[in-house]
Amino acid sequence: MVDNFTSERKLANLTGKRLREYVDREEFFEWLDAHHQQVEFIFHLGARTDTTEQNRDVLNVLNLDYSKQMWLACCQYQLPLVYASSAATYGSGTLGYSDDDALLPLLRPLNPYGESKNDFDNWAVQQPAKPLFWAGLKFFNVYGPNEYHKGRMASVILHAFRQIQDTGSMTLFRSHNPEYADGEQQRDFVYVKDVVEVCFFLLHNRRNSGIYNLGTGEARTFLDLTLSTFAALDRTADIRFRDTPEDIRDTYQYFTQADMSKLRSIGYDRPFTRLEDGISDYVRNYLVPGQYY
To answer: Which residues form the NAD-dependent epimerase/dehydratase domain (predicted)?
Structure first.
């Protein structure tokens, strides 16, 4: 496993896991030079994922330059690579949510984080040298166990669980778009267990390189999500609203929905977990028993 291991919150996620070796991200490429014959496949999922990050130098180092170095190393040693892109690349969604490569140069993300991910996607598809197999996964709103170190960027489900446990209520962002009522903002929420299944599929099916959406293909409202969290806790719903923070208000996505036809076209045929079922599993089998930091 490769990461920055200075965060105790991250280390807590590894409790009970079996790992062969820890490698600091700053030392990884030197380590790979010496051990590449032991590596069969690389999942590069690390990034600065804070959508409020405005320091482009940080995003360039972690989300762009590091990913380029990873790509080139995989080319050098002919290693298959799956890396994390993001639905943030789609911006306001005016061009839809198709993962067609032809749309990549036309996308206009709403924040520097999305720009950094889109910059790498565009760079990757233009490279003459490519890994033995590669896939960039445009993650939509992923939720589930082991997101506890993310703080503000953790899923609304985790925030809802904590608020409901502490106060008996949940506060959502008010809509500042006249096309959406409060709580009716819609996102494509995908359970992390489904993300793992797709990664395993690509591990064993390496014939079709490219960029792929990874959502469910069905947008759901934040009210749906919050009501499902109350239901999983067997609590009566008490939902309130507050203004969306000003630092994200102008770059807030009111609707996302993955076009999943490309992933389906290469043979991925497993159903995606319904939001209600995913939340029930997450809350009842992980959060309530206290399996979190």
So the answer is: 25-215
Task: Work out the number of other CB atoms within 10 angstroms of the CB of residue 86.
Answer: 24
Tell me which of 66, 113, 212, 282 is the catalytic residue: 113
Q: Name the active-site residue from 150, 180, 268, 292.
A: 150
pTM: predicted TM-score of the whole model, two decimal places: 0.93
Amino acid code (one letter) for 21: E
23: in domain = no
Q: What's the start-to-end Cα distance of the chain, in Å?
A: 20
Rounded Cα–Cα distance for residues 291 and 293 (Å): 7
Averaged pLDDT in 10-residue chunks for the chain of 293 residues: 77 78 92 96 89 84 94 98 97 96 96 95 98 97 89 89 96 96 97 98 96 98 98 97 90 95 98 98 94 54
* 271 part of a folded domain: yes
Task: Examine the residue annotation and report whether 262 is marked as an active-site residue of this protein.
Answer: no
83 is catalytic: no
DSSP conformation class of 38: G
